[in-house]
Known about the structure:
The protein is mainly alpha-helical. The protein has helices at residues 11-39, 41-45, 69-77, 89-94, 96-99, and strands spanning 2-3, 6-7. The chain has a two-stranded antiparallel ribbon. A hairpin with a 2-residue loop joins strand 1 (2-3) and strand 2. 0% of the residues are buried.
Amino acid sequence: FMINNERIICRRIIAHEFNRYFVSIASNLNRAYDERLDQDPILASNRKSYSDYLPNSCQSSTYLTDCTSDEVVEIINKLENGKASDIPAHVLKKSSHTIS
């Protein structure tokens, strides 16, 4: 890895320089974009805000109450044995009180 025509082999310095480069990308792009806007008044007049790309906000909301341990046990006990899953249903059923 070369920095200022000097060969660097220290992994910490190499990692730091990569990080410094990638962290600077956004600010460099923003600076170049701002300079372009300064040079082009038509482009500047059509400049959009990030909020122009967002959907309209939702005026209504949904509130969900916490479920109880009994509800969790009931749902687990309704699972069908033998259905494909990462954890077999019979194992979940045997440990339902611990899980809930």
